[in-house]
Structure prediction request, 417 residues.
Amino acid sequence: MFYYLFTYLDETFNVPGAGVFQYITFRAAAAVITSLVISLLFGKSLIRLLVRKQVGESIRDLGLDGQAEKKGTPTMGGLIILGAILVPVLLFTKLDNIYIILMIFTTVWLGLIGFLDDYIKVFRKDKSGLAGKFKVAGQLVLGLVVGLTIFFNEGVVIREKISAEQLIQTSDDGEIIRITDPSQKFSKESVKSTKTTLPFFKNNEVDYSKILAFLGKEYEKWAFLIYIPIVIFIIVAVSNGANLTDGIDGLATGTSAIIGATLGILAWVSGNIVFADYLNIMYIPNTGELTIFISAFVGACIGFLWYNTYPAQVFMGDTGSLAIGGIIAVFAILIRKEFLIPVLCGIFLVESLSVVMQVSYFKFTKRKFGEGKRIFKMSPLHHHYQVKGYAEPKIVQRFFIVGIMLAVFTIITLKLR
Prediction:
């Protein structure tokens, strides 16, 4: 809203300073400050309201130290995160940008699903919450919307890199004629494409449509048959990974802030033709606007961490955890860096794998030996360390350190090929 207002004031009345809203960096800074203020102020008021309404967390007895003290801690605090994201985004972004529209839809849609799950747990007193099949169905719908939009919307495009061969034309008599400015590294025309970034390789772009090349000349128009299932899988996996990580105070929130800051850097360089050229990466027009969204996301996570750090005054619940996981997944897909998710979201990945390994091994050993055995003392992984006697704040801080290391390594992959 402010972008359009100040653009109008600048162009119509030449108001001093109004033109600063044209700069993505300024609007990103304004978004992160606004989200911090909203989460800190709104968060305090919401926590008081949740306490008055007795919206407390029902804790499963896992036999962990300090677990009993958490019983009754207000939940549904994800509303703080959602509000601190959406308000700055509505204020500072270009709302006609298709990428911003998709991110707003993702935030609201998964926030509603998570809210419904928390509502059933808290007010209906049903500890199981929303049935898992309905959660997955909601994530499938989001994946379909995102996948179909990326594939068919004309605003979702990339600029192809120009090869050395394309810069040079040879005449009939063998004379070399340069037909393009050698400084131009990207095509002038934007094109629809299902290409994405493949880390660690010199020519680091791969096209999903190539999988269907055996279908013949028009194989590219059927690429959505491959692309959409991949988008759905990524969204379901990362969203549930964030949900599993939200098991001890501050872990999911702080980890998500680290991931969000890294994604912001990737979005900025991918949407800036100068940096894309310098780093020799894919140039994706109009994705720079996503930097503002992710700045609000990081500010919201850090602001929520003020109340969620040990000992937590509020839990985000599924209202927050499903949403932040989905936001990270969709954001990475939009900037075509989804193959970096296993590295950047390594904490989410390990937490999810620990659960899969634990359950699978227990079922296998029970079927084969008549008694189930476990790989970890408890899953997800953070509970394993709790059972081993590590203090909760120490576990969180060490996971943060690992998350920062993974984030730095993710940034390095821009040049590490």
About this structure: The chain is about 60% helix and 5% strand. The chain has a mean pLDDT of 90.
